[in-house]
Amino acid sequence: MILLTGVTGKIGSETARQLLAKGARLRALVRDAAKAAELQAAGVELVVGDIADAGIVKRALAGVEKAFLLLPNGEQQEANEKQFTDLCVAAGVKHLVKMSSMEATATALTPIPRAHWAVEEYIRASGLAWTMVKPNFFMQNLLSSAKSIREQDRFSLPMGGGTTGMADARDIGAVCAEVLTGQGHAGKSYEITGPEVLTFDQVAARFSEVLGRKITYVPMPMDQFRERMTGVLKPWHLDAVCQLFQEIADIGLDHTTDTFRKLIGRDPIPLRQFIEDHIALFRT
To answer: What class is the 2-135+168-192 domain?
Structure first.
C-alpha cells in the first residue's frame, strides 16, 4: 500500500494516475473528498482529514509500506512535514518520497526553499529510506495565463528576465511513480528539469510559434504582483512567494539535468509539445 498526499494538486494527481496505471494499491489523505472523487472512483482509498491532525495521519499510515509527501507551501508546511516523517517512522513505513525543489539547498535564502531543505535534512536523519524529487518550475503554471494569452496575446509574471528549466507535470508524475514502484531509488535526490533553459521572452516565442500569432511576455513589477495577490494568499505565503519569484528573476537557472531521461528512458516533454497539447486553452 502506498499513501499519497497532495493528490488534488498538479503533481499529486498526475502521480496518482500514473501509479494507478501501474496497478499500485493507493490510499490518499485528502481534506476534501469531493475533489478526489475521480481518483476514488478509479480505486484510490480515501482518508479524509487534515495532515496536521496526528490521529488522522496515523490512521492513514496503517499498513502503508511507502509514502509520498507533497504539501502546499505554507507557514506550517515544515512543522507538518516533520510530524508526518515522525509518524512514518512510528508506523514502520519502509520508504518516504518527498516532493522538494531544486532551489532547496543548504544555502537557500528564501523561506520556501529553506523549509524544503530543513525537512529534507530531517528526513535524512530519521532512519527512513528516502528519496527527494526536486523539480524547478511547472509548465502547468502557465495555464493560469491562458485567458490573457487567448484574449490579449500577452502574459505577465513577476519573473523579470529570469530563467527556468520548466518541466511538464506529467513528467514529474512519471518520476514520482517510478520512484514509488521501482528499485534502487533510496538515498537519492533527483533534480528534474525539462529539456531547455528558457527566459520568459523565449517562452512567449514558443507560444508565438505554435499559435501562429505574436505572444508577448510583459514582466510584472513585484509590487503590482503583491498588490494583486493580497487577500488571495496569506501574508506569510505571499511574502515567501514574492521572495522566491524575485530569486528566479535575479538568479534563475543555468542548466538542465538528464535525470528524467535516465529514470524514464525518454526525453522530457518540451514546452512546444505542452502548448500543442493544451492549444484549445490558448486559441482565440
So the answer is: alpha beta
